[in-house]
Amino acid sequence: MCYSNSLTATNIQLEKTYQRSASLLADNPPIFLASGFSFPVWPVVTKEDTLIPMQWGLVPAWFRGIQPQEIAGKTLNARLETLSQKASFKHLISSRRCIIPSTGFFENQSLESRKKPFFIYPKDGLLFHMAGLYDTWINQSTRAVYHGFSIITTEANPLMAEIHNTKKRMPLLIHERSVAAFLQEAREITSFAPIDEQFMAFHPVSKRIFTSETPNVPRVQQRMEDNIGTQGVLF
């Protein structure tokens, strides 16, 4: 699954990449590591001409609770294989697609009783383009508007199957050339093949920083060499 993400690109870089205005975005500092369970605000790409700030954690328009976190913590990810079966997602497939920009994400590899965190990032270029769905929820008591998104996950490619060796999942990473077609919604989501592992780079990072109370620092993305074994033949 994908619960730890980063975005260190500037608003100007996002505007250039997606050909959309960043006028609605605040001039926020870089995100070196953010947990989805903190429901961070993220710039999201839709069919609109502007990048839209949304919170990670989708809240369906039909939700009648008071606290959006009641459901947002369960919708950080959306499994590609079951999108059409889930009440939170099935009505969004043909109308509310989005792309979540990422400069790299984190996953743990399980090594017997230990976990080893890895940072996975684009081998060439600045960004991963994560496929997602979004919705808008209105609090019936306060009339406050909540824009939230979910990252679509799919079966892991060989590289990610060795890193994320328990769940064997990964974000659905779209080729940059396919972003426009994905957003236009004419094709089935399942027809978009994730990028090949040759476009992905990776290295282990410090577990001490990754699991600390203040992990959002540049050092969390730095390569960490240690004496903990690594499974698989790709390393």
Helix-strand blueprint:
Elements: E1 4-7, H1 11-18, E2 31-35, E3 41-44, E4 52-56, H2 69-72, E5 77-79, E6 97-102, E7 104-111, E8 114-122, E9 128-138, E10 145-155, H3 158-163, E11 169-171, H4 179-184, E12 200-204, H5 207-210
Parallel strand pairs: 4-10, 5-10
Antiparallel strand pairs: 1-2, 1-7, 3-4, 6-9, 7-8, 8-12, 9-10, 10-11
Tell me what the structure shows.
- The chain is mainly beta and 235 residues long.
- It has one domain (4-221): SOS response associated peptidase-like (hypothetical protein yedk fold, Alpha-Beta Complex).
- It contains 5 helices and 12 strands.
- It has helices at 11-18, 69-72, 158-163, 179-184, 207-210, and strands at 4-7, 31-35, 41-44, 52-56, 77-79, 97-102, 104-111, 114-122, 128-138, 145-155, 169-171, 200-204.
- The strands form 2 sheets. Strands 3, 4, 5, 6, 9, 10 and 11 form a 7-stranded mixed beta sheet that branches.
The first-level CATH class name = Alpha Beta
Oligomer: single chain
By CATH, the superfamily comes out as SOS response associated peptidase-like
Quote the average pLDDT: 94
Q: What is the straight-line distance between the termini?
A: 21 Å
Total helix count?
5
Q: What's the helical proportion of residues?
A: 10-25%
Classify the beta-strand content into a percent band.
25-35%
CATH topology tier name:
hypothetical protein yedk fold
Q: Give the low-confidence spans.
A: none
Write the H/E string, N to C. Answer: EHEEEHEEEEEEHEHEH
Biggest beta sheet summary: 7 strands, mixed
CATH architecture: Alpha-Beta Complex
| Rg calculated over all Cα atoms | 17 Å
What would the principal axes of the Cα set say about the shape?
globular
Number of strand segments: 12
Integer count of domains: 1
Derived structural class:
mainly beta
